[in-house]
Structure to design on (680 residues):
């Protein structure tokens, strides 16, 4: 259970405009962890998550996912790495005009022959699995609805079902509840928690609210200006550390 | 304009001090006269002020702007030779067209008629006596004579209470109307006329009495116009198709988000957009004239003109649709390990195809409207016959063409709106 799934060393990202979004970040993630990343807007949370599956090219450093170096992986190997890493986004990133079912099925694209895309073909077994995953996130009746007709919470659950289609070992969740109301936030995070506990999927999730981080995280990593300023258990974040992460003027806001 | 001291501009001084938010104006008593503009500004602090701190009705810019606008429109009125009186004086010229619009040449009746003829010879010769036959009879007071003779025609045995026409037909069959007649209850009529001046000697006087009401049928004009309308719609279809075929590939070159990342891309982008803009700025009518010179009169020239114009306008619209693409879904699909083909199929295509379809239908709609006038310059379609009808003052036929255009264009407009609403 304590084997390492992800190992990041000296990860640095400098954008073309000179912004140093990540500055020599190193940490390990053990299999089965629910790692929550907190930090102010612009502290580098999204950049860190996107470097892990190389949606953003890192400037320096190494990222080892199950022993594969993501940073130098050639195209075909990168695709094989990506298909084992599910991703959930703040803005859901569904294809708005496509059906929920199609959106869920796109999660499997890394496993099917690309030529099938020309005929928009998915084998019946995959369609069954898509329905099963929609069942799991509680919206099987929405399969044929257009994605943009769903509420925010429902769209995010479609996003989770899409990630589930990948049979992921790791799920990256980039502010998955920042666009949702508090009740929906808990609903979505509970699904992630269930996947983490029942299926043993490792989750790395960035969150705005410390109360949510404490409630769901098994471990918390805090970023400030691209550097790790805290790495430990949720209970260890006291007033002093809170101010170190969010600044002296910050006041903690509860989300119930 | 900075506040100048001096009694000539008291309001500016006061107002600018007000704008600075100072309390008592320093030296205000020296500048403003009591009860003058200074007092007014103080008692009405909410008065509208322009940016420079001048009360709006004291802004010289306002009056200068009004004067310039007046001058522009006075000149414009003259240069475009606007003479509203002509609308009244010329009304009688267009009146037949207005009434023709109310009665376009669409439906005609083939009414059955009873026709009986009697000969009348010039130059002394007498026609042979007609054999007595049953049915209606037309008798002339004399059967031979000279031009200018007064002749009385009587008819009997015709359908009662019907109207008809007396005709004069010369030796080679040319007909002219003599007069209208109407039968009485007994089926008789009588009419007097003067023998007209015609060539030849062997003439025929005939009476045609309308015997009943025939069925309505569509007029020949209607079929001519319908034919041309079909040609027009297809002209627009072919032009639009040509536009789509070329605009789709070009539009990718004219999208900034695609060309921005490749070497030489910005130059390709700038070139494509410039070509689009220059081509679009040439009216399709001008293109049609050019193409009629090139490929001759007819619908093909119209297709080319509409096609070239459509490439430019569709290309621009498509490019903008590609530029407005949401990168979120693409990012998500890339993250699943999808290949480029899969990303295009599931991330890009669903986002742009509905818009492409909507723009294409919209363009077809515009092209149908436009192809109705492209015939005026020889580009084929309904405009060609419409122009002929107008030149020949055949107002009822012209009205038929106009109604056809109005109905088809309105229907296309509606259909395209419905379809666009469904795909987007």
């Amino acid at each position: 259970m304590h084997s390492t799934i992800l190992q990041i060393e000296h990860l640095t990202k400098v954008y073309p405009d000179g912004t140093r979004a990540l500055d020599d970040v190193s940490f390990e993630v053990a299999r089965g962890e629910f790692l929550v990343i907190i930090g102010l807007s612009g502290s580098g949370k999204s950049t860190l998550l996107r470097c892990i599956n190389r949606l953003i090219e890192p400037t320096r450093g190494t990222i080892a996912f199950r022993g594969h170096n993501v940073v130098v992986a050639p195209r075909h190997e990168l695709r094989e790495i990506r298909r084992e890493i599910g991703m959930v986004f703040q803005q859901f990133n569904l294809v708005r005009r496509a059906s929920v079912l199609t959106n869920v099925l796109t999660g499997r694209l890394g496993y099917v022959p690309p030529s099938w895309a020309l005929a928009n073909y998915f084998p019946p077994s995959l369609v069954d699995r898509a329905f099963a995953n929609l069942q799991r996130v509680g919206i099987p009746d929405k399969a044929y609805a257009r994605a943009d007709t769903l509420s925010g919470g429902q769209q995010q659950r479609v996003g989770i079902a899409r990630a589930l289609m990948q049979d992921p070992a790791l799920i990256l969740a980039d502010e998955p509840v920042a666009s949702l109301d508090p009740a929906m936030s808990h609903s979505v995070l509970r699904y992630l928690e269930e996947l983490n506990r029942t299926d043993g999927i490792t989750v790395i999730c960035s969150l705005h609210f410390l109360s949510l981080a404490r409630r769901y995280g098994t471990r918390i990593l805090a970023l400030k200006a691209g550097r790790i300023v805290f790495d430990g258990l949720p209970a260890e974040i006291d007033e002093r550390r809170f101010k170190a992460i969010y600044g002296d003027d910050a006041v903690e806001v509860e989300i119930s | 304009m900075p506040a100048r001291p001096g009694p000539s501009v008291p309001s500016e001084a006061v107002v600018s001090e007000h704008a600075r938010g100072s309390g008592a104006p320093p030296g205000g008593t020296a500048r403003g006269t009591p009860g003058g503009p200074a007092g007014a500004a103080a008692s009405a602090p909410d008065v509208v002020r322009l940016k420079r701190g001048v009360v709006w009705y004291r802004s010289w810019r306002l009056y200068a702007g009004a004067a310039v606008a007046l001058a522009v429109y006075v000149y414009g009125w003259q240069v475009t030779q606007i003479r509203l009186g002509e609308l009244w004086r010329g009304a009688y010229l267009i009146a037949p067209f207005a009434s023709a619009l109310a009665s376009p040449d669409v439906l005609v009746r083939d009414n059955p008629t009873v026709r009986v003829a009697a000969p009348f010879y010039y130059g002394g010769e007498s026609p042979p006596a007609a054999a007595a036959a049953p049915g209606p009879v037309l008798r002339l007071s004399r059967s031979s004579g000279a031009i200018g003779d007064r002749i009385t025609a009587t008819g009997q045995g015709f359908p009662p209470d019907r109207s008809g026409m007396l005709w004069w037909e010369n030796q080679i069959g040319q007909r002219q109307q003599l007069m209208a007649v109407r039968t009485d209850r007994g089926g008789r009529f009588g009419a007097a006329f003067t023998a007209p001046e015609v060539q030849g000697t062997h003439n025929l006087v005939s009476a045609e009495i309308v015997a009943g009401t025939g069925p309505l049928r569509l007029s020949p004009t209607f079929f001519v116009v319908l034919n041309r309308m079909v040609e027009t719609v297809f002209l627009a279809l072919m032009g639009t198709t040509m536009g789509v075929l070329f605009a789709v590939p070009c539009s990718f070159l004219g999208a900034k988000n695609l060309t921005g990342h490749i070497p030489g891309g910005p130059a390709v982008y700038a070139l494509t957009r410039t070509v689009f803009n220059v081509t679009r700025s040439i009216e399709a009518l001008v293109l049609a004239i050019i193409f009629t010179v090139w490929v001759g009169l007819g619908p093909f020239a119209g297709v080319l003109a509409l096609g070239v114009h459509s490439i430019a306008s569709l290309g621009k619209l498509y490019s903008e649709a590609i530029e407005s693409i949401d990168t979120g879904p693409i990012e998500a699909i890339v993250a699943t390990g999808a290949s480029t083909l899969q990303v295009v199929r599931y991330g890009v295509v669903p986002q742009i195809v509905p818009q492409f379809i909507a723009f294409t239908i919209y363009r077809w709609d515009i092209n149908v409207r436009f192809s109705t006038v492209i015939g005026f310059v020889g580009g084929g379609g309904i405009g060609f016959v419409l122009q002929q009808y107008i030149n020949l003052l055949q107002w009822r036929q012209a009205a038929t063409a106009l109604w056809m255009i109005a109905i088809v264009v309105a229907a296309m407009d509606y259909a395209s709106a419905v379809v666009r609403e469904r795909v987007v």
Observations:
- The mean pLDDT of chain A is 91.
- The first helix of chain A runs from residue 45 to 52.
